[in-house]
Specification:
The chain has about 200 residues and is an all-alpha fold. Helix content is about 75%, strand content about 0%. It is built from seven helices and no strands.
C-alpha cells in the first residue's frame, strides 16, 4: 500500500500552482505540529486570586446549596476572565483560536469542562454533594492534561497537579476540603499563572 506523504499534485499543473500546493501542505503540517502558546498566564493568576475569597465565602455559608451558588458565581467569573484574557493574548500573539493548535486546545479542554458542569447539576439535584470537590479537581485536571497536549509543556503538569489534589481529596476530612480547594484552584492557578506569564509573555 502506498501512503501519500506530501501534497497531491497533478502533472498538468503549472509550476506556480504546484508551488502553491506545496506551500499549503507545509503550512498545514506546521499548524498541526505547533504548540498553542497563547495560554494567558496573567489571566490564570487573576482567576486564582478570585478563588481565594470565593472559597472563604463558600465555607461560611449555612448550607451546601448556598455554598454551591457561590461556586457557580465564581466559575462564571473565572470563565469570563479566562476567555477575555485568552482572546487578548491570542490576538496580541497573532494566534488563531479557530484553527490549528488554538482550535485543538479548546476542543480537547471543553469536554471535561462540560462534563463537570453536567455532573455538578446532576449531583445538586440528587442532593449528594459529598464528592463534588473531588469531581471538579479530577475533571479539571484531566481536561487540562488533554488540552495541554497541544500547548506548552507546563500545562499538562498543571493538570497532573490538579489530579493529584483530586486523589488527596478522597482521603481528607470534609473540614479540610475548602483548604484543598483554595490551594488547588487558587494556589496552583496563581503559581502556574506567574510562571506562564513570565516564561511565555503574558
Amino acid at each position: 500500500m502506498h501512503i501519500q506523504h506530501g501534497p497531491v499534485t497533478r502533472k498538468d499543473q503549472s509550476p506556480e500552482n504546484q508551488a502553491t500546493e506545496h506551500l499549503r501542505f507545509i503550512r498545514d503540517v506546521m499548524e498541526r505540529s505547533a504548540s498553542f502558546t497563547a495560554v494567558p498566564g496573567w489571566g490564570m493568576f487573576v482567576v486564582g486570586l478570585t478563588v481565594l475569597p470565593a472559597t472563604w465565602i463558600a465555607s461560611i455559608q449555612n448550607s451546601s446549596n448556598d455554598s454551591l451558588i457561590v461556586w457557580f458565581t465564581q466559575a462564571a467569573i473565572a470563565v469570563i476572565i479566562g476567555l477575555w484574557t485568552l482572546h487578548r493574548k491570542a490576538h496580541k500573539s497573532g494566534v488563531s483560536l479557530t484553527s490549528g493548535p488554538g482550535r485543538k486546545y479548546i476542543l480537547t479542554l471543553a469536554p471535561s469542562m462540560v462534563a463537570g458542569l453536567l455532573f455538578t447539576i446532576a449531583l445538586w439535584q440528587a442532593g449528594n454533594l459529598d464528592l463534588l470537590a473531588t469531581l471538579w479537581l479530577l475533571l479539571y485536571g484531566a481536561g487540562t492534561i488533554t488540552g495541554g497536549a497541544s500547548s506548552v509543556r507546563v500545562i499538562p503538569l498543571l493538570g497532573i497537579s490538579f489530579m493529584v489534589m483530586g486523589i488527596i481529596s478522597l482521603f481528607i476530612s470534609p473540614e479540610w476540603m475548602y483548604v484543598l480547594l483554595a490551594l488547588s484552584f487558587g494556589g496552583l492557578h496563581i503559581g502556574f499563572g506567574i510562571y506562564i506569564a513570565r516564561k511565555y509573555g503574558g
